Amino acid sequence: MESEQRLKRKRIYRPYSRAQFLSRRSLILCLSFFVFLMFLSSERFPIRTVSFHPVVSVPSLSILSKNSLQDSFHAKLRFPLSVEDRVLFPDHLLLLVSDKIDEAEKLDCVYHKVLNHKDVVRQRVLSVDEFDGFRSVVRCPLPPWNYSAAAGLMWRGHGVDYSLSLRSNRTVHSWDRLVYEAAFDGKTAVVFAKGLNLRPHKESDPNRFMCQFGLKNSDEEDEGFVVMTEAIVAAQEVVRCSLPSSIRNNPDLAQGIRVTVVLASRNDVEHVRMPSAFRFRNSRSYDHRRNRMRQKENIAIPSVAKLYNSKSYQTKRNDGKFELCACTMLWNQAPALREWIMYHTWLGVERWFIYDNNSDDGIQDVIEELDFQDYNVSRHTWPWIKTQEAGFSHCALRARNECKWVGFFDVDEFYYFPRHHRRGLPGQNLLRSLVANYSSSRTIAEIRTACHSFGPSGLSSPPLQGVTVGYTCRLQSPERHKSIVRPALLNETLLNVVHHFQLKKGFRYLNVPESSIIINHYKYQVWKTFRAKFFRRVATYVVDWQENQNQGSKDRAPGLGTEAIEPPNWRKQFCEVWDTGLRDFVLANLADPATGSLPWEKSLL
Which stretches are annotated as coiled coil (predicted)? Predict the structure, then answer.
């Protein structure tokens, strides 16, 4: 009897004892983890959240100082990089990473074989840039044959499992069809997308589109919290949608929300108008509440775009707007920046927005030097190839709260005032004075200036004193024009054709006479400089030089084929009129009286 009671007690109290043991063990583990976190966040060990490899090497027979111990600790302790998205371009693979990356030269791109994930190859990254203030872009070489484009990242010399960078997302997006950028604009969101197949230079029907806002990765089956709103306007690669009220009322809570464009079915457009906004917790519950067929027909474009409430874009300057700013998009034109910026600053440009389209020629060093000399230049990483029109739309949004006027022109284009030069009048701040005359106009919102195209002018090597002094022979008739606009008065589509924008109703452009102001476009430079155009053009609707299309277009060199082969007598071509006006203007106003040197020459010393 006593033994039976003893067995009952064992059966009764054994589970309780085990539960009690587990409870104590869990408590100990939680406390240990908390102490570990406190250790990591302590001021004594300030750790960068780049990658994680906790190895501390302490040399024997030596005593390390506190600083050297910290340096050693920082060098070895790396957190794994989180690859959020991948975009496959024709010439490289772009990775979007949710970390700031230091020491990019120590980072490798890692590819696994399609049918064998243990078989991996490593290649050095092409370049790394900070992106949108919250993420980084890593450019990797294209994957080797039979290796997946779902690349990861690994620190060189560290044995961290690169698969850590693949855990969040293994999707590889095609550049042909992708939502790539998004920005707040008041009570709306402006979304930029490839693959909409909208007519160039024309407005499109916004009823064909909706915008979808959601906290989710693009490869997750459960879409999480999602909000959809109607499109207000659409043109080229830009769709503007109203913001959901929850985001509109609390924009700071919307940091990092992914946004995409949904192509509405014709049935939606013609028969069923969507409410201004509706929410659902996940796609399955939405399917039950809405028509299944319509959900299948509504196609969401893959997206890497996220909304960030960047105060630098939204807040107006406290001391008033700049009268005149300039924006351009470029690729590998760092050597041309000094002359272009210094000259136009002398003419009155106060603020510069440089949209860098994947340069690898040391442009950041040039911009930092110019900014150090108080030229007020900022570089914006724009990794999206052949999207110049969209980039200019984005820049117009960005500059609107800082600038009354923004000029959109290239680094080989220079404004010149021939009438002032002939009369011997002062030239400094002429361009700013010109636009300031129309800053209060109730009708003028854009000033257009014709361009004269200059040729190599008999030269075989780049001119030492710059293009304004070296190239002096041009074509007789002007080609195209460039514009300076009031960004607050642009049409809400932000529609542009690079050379000019569509304006709000009631406003018009002004053509200034060539006798007063002209742009010298140094379009056909010496062959060494010109042949770089064969690699890629930045404009969306301009055919690349290698493609056998639009041979007669003004965007191409007359008589030039599709291969980067120097034609006979290139240095003598495109020369119909000798024009030394801007050269003389520059030497008279900007050359050092004692040495004859120009400001951009000094910066090269």
Answer: none
